[in-house]
């Protein structure tokens, strides 16, 4: 259920990465380009005292920006000297910011490595903070624009009906939008949430356990669909986790043999935990806090399961 290996980052985020070779450098830049992530680079040298003085600041900034690559390149390293030469580094420390140009599609150019959009020389603490805050990348959000105007109108109608807690007609509106724009992960996420709220309302076609179970199946289908389409979108993983929890609810388990219910509950909780772990790692701010809160609840429920 975790994001596929193809989409996984080539190195850890949240800490500066000491680049060891041109090959590693190219791998990280290509990945960052494809995923539209900012790369900030600290060109330093072992003998450079200002480099050592600003290094803790660089490390702290990296910890605050979990969706940005912070690289360090030793200008005197045998295998990294060509990188410094390529970017005409003549003083240490020098910091550069590399980003994908606006409007370029990362998937359309696999060799793309971005362009330098900012540069800073010297151990300028305030300047480094400024360029980091200006250019740092944030949690991924899928495109909101749909393929047709009719799809946009159907989505807007669905949003309006959802706000009015008219979940059944909201589902119908989102379904119409999906017919017109079937590759939009955001639409599947919206419909999954509408199914979830509809089930909770227990009205308008969700009046019986059988009806709610049928809606749970559809909610799960949408949760799986959105994570397949947008595996880097944290909210999509939250939608899948909600579907997992509904699938493991007491009501949904009533048709399961009594001696199998405990195992079924564990399986769905474990799946929800994995989905929410992905959500926490892929989000920030309020969404991250909400995903973490739900993850804490799920982990407590797992800990409270009866042992065999």
TrEMBL record:
TPR repeats, residue ranges: 151-184
Ligase keyword on record: no
Thioredoxin domain boundaries: 1-137
A Pfam match: Thioredoxin
PROSITE patterns: THIOREDOXIN_2 (PS51352), TPR (PS50005)
InterPro entries, per the entry: Thioredoxin-like_sf, Thioredoxin_domain, TPR-like_helical_dom_sf, TPR_rpt
Protein name: Thioredoxin-domain-containing protein
Higher taxonomy: Eukaryota, Fungi, Dikarya, Basidiomycota, Agaricomycotina
């Amino acid at each position: 259920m975790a994001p596929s290996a193809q989409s996984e980052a080539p190195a850890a985020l949240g800490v500066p990465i000491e680049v060891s070779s041109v090959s590693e450098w190219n791998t990280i830049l290509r990945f960052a380009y494809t995923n539209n992530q900012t790369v900030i680079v600290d060109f330093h040298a072992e003998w450079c005292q200002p480099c050592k003085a600003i290094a803790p600041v660089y490390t702290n900034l990296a910890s605050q920006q979990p969706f940005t690559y912070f690289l360090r390149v030793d200008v005197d390293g045998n295998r990294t000297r060509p990188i410094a030469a390529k970017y005409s580094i003549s003083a240490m420390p020098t910091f550069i910011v590399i980003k994908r140009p606006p409007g370029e599609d990362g998937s359309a150019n696999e060799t793309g490595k971005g362009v330098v959009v900012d540069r800073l020389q010297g151990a300028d603490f305030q300047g480094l903070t400024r360029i980091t805050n200006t250019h740092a990348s944030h949690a991924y959000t899928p495109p909101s624009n749909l393929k047709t105007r009719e799809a946009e109108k159907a989505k807007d109608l669905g949003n309006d009906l959802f706000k009015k807690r008219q979940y059944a007609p909201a589902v119908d509106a989102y379904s119409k939008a999906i017919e017109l724009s079937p590759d939009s992960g955001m639409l599947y996420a919206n419909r999954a949430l509408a199914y979830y709220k509809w089930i909770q309302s227990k009205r308008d076609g969700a009046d019986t356990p059988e009806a709610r179970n049928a809606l749970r199946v559809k909610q799960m289908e949408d949760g799986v669909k959105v994570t397949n389409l947008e595996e880097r979108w944290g909210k999509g993983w939250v939608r899948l986790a909600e579907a997992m929890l509904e699938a493991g609810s007491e009501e949904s388990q009533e048709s399961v043999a009594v001696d199998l219910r405990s195992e079924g509950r564990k399986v769905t909780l474990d799946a929800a935990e994995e989905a929410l772990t992905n959500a926490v790692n892929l989000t920030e701010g309020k969404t991250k806090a909400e995903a973490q809160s739900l993850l804490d609840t799920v982990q407590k429920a797992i800990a409270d399961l009866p042992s065999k």
